[in-house]
Amino acid sequence: MFSEFNWWKLTAESPSMITLIVFSIVTFGVAIERAVYFWRRRGNPDTTAQEVAQRMRKGEVKEAVWTCEHSNHPVGAVLGAVVAPADEASDVDERIYVALSRQKLLLERNLNVLGTMAGTAPLVGLLGTVWGIMRAFHDMARVGSAAPTVVAAGIAEALVTTAVGLVVAVPALILYNHFIRRSTVMLTMAENHARTIRASIAARNDSGPSHPRRTDGTREQANRPAHAPHPLTVG
C-alpha cells in the first residue's frame, strides 16, 4: 500500500512528521535505557530478606549490612536503612521512608518522558491532520480544481501524521505503565520486608532477660539474702 508513497517528500514538507520522528527516537532511547536499568536491578528480595534476618538473629550486624549493600534489588537499600547502625535519636520509620524515596527516584527516572510522549504524540499527529487538510483546501483554491491529483498530497499528510502519532503513542503508553508497575511492585516488596525485619528487631530488643526460677517453679526474689530477716522482725 505504501510502496509508491513518497515518505521523504512528506517528511521534508511536514513539520509534524519531523516532530513525530524525533518523538519516536526519544521514546526508543528511553525505553532501552529503562529496560537495561530494571534488568540490572533485578534480584530475589525474599532470599535477601531471609539472609539478613538470619544474620540479625545471630547478631552478625556487619554481615547483614554487607548483604544489603551487595543486593541490586531495592530491598537491599531499604533493609540497609533498618539494620545499619545509626544514631539512637534517628527514627527507623523515617530512615525507611527516605530510602524508599531515593529508590523511587532512581526507578522512575526518565519515565515522565515516556508519559509525555504518550500524551503528546497523538496531539502532534492531530495537528498534522489539521495542517494537511488546510494544505489540501489551499491547493484547491489556488488551482481552482478539486481533482485528486491536487488534494492528494494534503490528504495523505493529514492521514499519515495521525497514524504515525498513534504508532508512537501506543508503545510509549504501554512501556510507561509497565515500568511504573514494576517500580511499584519492587518498592512494595522492599517496604514489606523492611517492616517485617524492623518488627522482629524491636520485639527482640523489648524482650529482656526474665527472672531466674527455682527448681520448684517459684521465682527467686532479686537482691535479697538467703537468710535476711523480715523487715518487721524486732531484734
Question: What's the layout of helices and strands?
Answer:
Elements (H helix, E strand, L loop, with lengths): L6 H7 L1 H26 L4 H13 L3 H9 L4 H10 L8 H16 L3 H33 L4 H59 L29
Descriptive notes:
With 235 residues, the chain is mainly α. The protein is built from 8 helices and no strands. α2 packs parallel to α8 (148-206), α5 packs parallel to α8 and α6 packs antiparallel against α8 (148-206). The longest helix is centred in the last third of the chain and has 59 residues, at 148-206. The model is unreliable at 209-228 and 230-235 (pLDDT under 50).
Largest sheet: none
**Series of H and E elements:** HHHHHHHH
- Unreliable runs, pLDDT <50, ≥5 residues? 209-228, 230-235
Task: Classify the helix fraction into a percent range.
Answer: over 70%
Please report the number of helical segments: 8
Report the strand count.
0
Mean pLDDT, to the nearest integer, reads 80
SSE-based structural type: mainly alpha
- Gyration radius from CA atoms, angstroms: 34 Å
Principal-axes geometry comes out as rod-shaped
Strand content: under 5%
Distance between the termini: 118 Å
